Amino acid sequence: MTDAYERRPTAADISVGDTGPELVVEELEREDFVRYAGASGDFNPIHYDEPYARNAGNESVFAQGMLTAGFVSHMISDWFGLDRIERFTVRFQERVFPDDTIAVTGEITDVTAGDEDVTVTADLEAKTDGGDVVLSGEAVARLPSE
Question: What pLDDT, in 10s, does the model give residues 119-135?
Fold first, then answer.
């Protein structure tokens, strides 16, 4: 994974069209899905039991959607600062399979000035190394003017 921003942005640092720090999670493994199951309590065998997943009509086990959402939340909290995020929404679009590499990106789509701060909206996306969008979303953050 990539490192967090050195300094949290202020309104003076942000413009529509700016992109955030890309976060890349390389070659996810079944073990990652099992670890997430343990951390989250989501023990649906479709995420770690290959015969079960195939019998249910899937090509393989696949990651929990919230694992992918966690990668996206990691990127936006690195970008803006966790305490500045007001809203974070996601839409799951495709499954993430073992050996997939996920790249998380964001782009500023709106900057609205307030009396003492600025509200920033960013579109978010997680893609596989094959170019499939697995998750899209939006974050809204409130940044200090300076």
Answer: 999 999 999 999 999 99
What value does the CA radius of gyration of the chain take, rounded to a whole number of Å?
A: 17
Examine the pLDDT at 2 and tell me if it is beyond 90. Answer: no
75-88 per-position pLDDT tens digit: 999 999 999 999 99
Query: Which CATH number goes with the domain that contains 62?
Result: 3.10.129.10
Letter string b/e over residues 80-95, b meaning 16 or more CB atoms within 10 A of that residue's CB: bbeebbeebebebebb
Cα(98)–Cα(135) distance, integer angstroms: 16
Q: Per the structure, how many domains does the chain have?
A: 1
C-alpha 113/C-alpha 105 separation (Å) is 24
